[in-house]
Each structure stands twice: as C-alpha cells, then as structure tokens.
C-alpha cells in the first residue's frame, strides 16, 4: 500500500486525475487505519464481513460515493435545466444482485432517489412478488443526472458518468446484474439490441449480466404485447435470482 501511495503522489505532481476507486481505497485505509492490503479481493472481504466495523466501512463508502458524485462536473447534464440534483444508487452494498437502469426521470430528480416514479413502483412490485426486499439489493443508473425531456443519454454522457458507476461496481462487486433496458445493456455490451439480447446471459468482467426490458417499457405496452412483455421480464428476473442463489446461496433477500 505504501508503494501505491508513493505512485499516487507522483501522479498528483503530474496533475493526472486519479480513479475514484483508488482515492476511496486510500480514504478507507486512512479512516479505519487498515493495514497492508495486497488485493482488491482482500479489501472486499473486509468490507463485506458481517460485523459492526465492516458495516461502518460500508456506510463510509456510500457517503464517499455520494460525495464524489456531487462534485462531478464531467459532462453538461449536471448543469442542464432538467437536473435539479444528482441521483446516486441506493440499497445494500453487500448485495450480490445489482439492478442498473438508464438515468433519473422527473420523480427521481425531485426526490434524489432511483426508481421512485411509476416505473420504480412497478420494479418494486416485481421484486416483492419474487420475495425480494428492495432494500436488500442495490439499484442504480448509468447516468446520475436527469437528461432533458428524459431523453436517452448520449454516449459521451454515459462515458463521462462511468466514473461514478464504476465506483459502485468496484465496491459493491455484485455477482449478478440486471440491465434494465438498452442503455445499461450497451454499457456492458456495446452495439447491442435489447430486443435480441433480452433474456440472454452476458458474462463480462466477472459479472453475470441479465438484460431485460426497462419497467417504463412495460408501462407503454398494451393488450397482448403487454402480457408478453410482463412474462418476458418475469422470466428474466427469475433467471437472475436463480443465478444469485447458485452463486451466493447464503444471502437472504428478506
């Protein structure tokens, strides 16, 4: 860790911007007086342990995630009229399951929480029917500022905001990710179609990613299309839940 700190000091002299994850690792080490940590896996084991100190570390990490996000000016979304506040992810940092959507809408921007509008209410209903307490998963978005008119985020905006999402991915380290819609799908597998990839596993960077339709898409359907879409999403969520139980049978969503 000492060598890492020296390396970072050299980078700071050169005015090279450090990854948020490296900054947070050092903040964590200093705050909790951690000894030498030689791997990210070793650090994650400490963070995810079931004890009061690890719980304090997770709280510290989440506050830092929000702090870095609130200081972010990497794209113009943060200064657009549509954005009144940034919306960090929310939930359990211990969860092996992470849900990732596109970006905040009107209700999310107003309340500062992800998935709290009509689409969010539908998502909560799906989770409840699966026996999952929403507070026992982690829910986030690719971009954390509301795009104008709820439009799809531009590629440059997603790339700029990736520093924030990558920080969440690093310290939550989910085993399974449900990608809600084409934007998170393309984050993990560029140039993909949600219509073709929905329901098909993508294994990348150590994550099992299950692409499915965004709850807002379900709400736009009618008649037979609505019924089919609901069953497609239900099947995808069940696949994801089965994979989590296979990989982390000890984790309880209740």
From TrEMBL:
Keywords: 4Fe-4S, DNA damage, DNA repair, Hydrolase, Iron, Iron-sulfur, Metal-binding. GO terms for biological process: DNA repair. The keyword 4Fe-4S applies. SMART domains: UDG, UreE_C. CDD domains: UDG-F4_TTUDGA_SPO1dp_like. One of its GO terms (molecular function) is 4 iron, 4 sulfur cluster binding. The keyword Heme does not apply. Residues 88-238 form the Uracil-DNA glycosylase-like domain. It catalyses: Hydrolyzes single-stranded DNA or mismatched double-stranded DNA and polynucleotides, releasing free uracil. Its EC number is 3.2.2.27. Gene3D superfamilies: Uracil-DNA glycosylase-like domain. It comes from the Bacteria. Belongs to the uracil-DNA glycosylase (UDG) superfamily. Type 4 (UDGa) family. NCBIfam families: UDG_fam4 (TIGR00758). This is Type-4 uracil-DNA glycosylase. It comes from Biomaibacter acetigenes.
């Amino acid at each position: 860790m000492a060598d890492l700190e020296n390396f970072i000091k050299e980078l700071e002299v050169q005015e090279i911007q450090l990854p948020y994850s490296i900054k947070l690792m050092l903040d964590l080490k200093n705050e909790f007086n951690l000894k030498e940590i030689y791997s990210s896996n070793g650090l994650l084991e400490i963070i995810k342990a079931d004890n009061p100190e690890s719980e304090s570390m997770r709280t510290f990490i989440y506050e830092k995630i929000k702090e870095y996000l609130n200081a972010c000016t990497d794209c113009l979304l943060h200064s657009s009229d549509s954005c009144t506040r940034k919306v960090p992810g929310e939930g359990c940092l211990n969860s092996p399951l992470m849900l990732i959507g596109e970006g905040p809408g009107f209700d999310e921007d107003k309340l500062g929480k992800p998935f709290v509008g009509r689409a969010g209410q539908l998502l909560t209903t799906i989770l409840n029917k699966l026996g999952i307490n929403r507070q026992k998963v982690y829910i986030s978005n690719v971009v954390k500022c509301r795009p104008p008119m709820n439009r799809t985020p531009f590629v440059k905006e997603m790339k700029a905001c990736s520093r924030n999402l990558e920080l969440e991915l690093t310290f939550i380290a989910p085993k399974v990710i449900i990608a809600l819609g084409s934007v998170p799908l393309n984050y993990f597998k560029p140039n993909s179609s949600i219509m073709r990839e929905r329901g098909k596993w993508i294994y990348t960077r150590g994550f099992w990613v299950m692409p499915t339709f965004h709850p807002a898409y379900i709400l736009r359907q009618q008649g037979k299309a609505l019924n089919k879409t609901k069953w497609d999403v239900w099947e995808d969520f069940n696949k994801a839940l089965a994979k989590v139980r296979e990989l982390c049978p000890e984790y309880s969503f209740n």
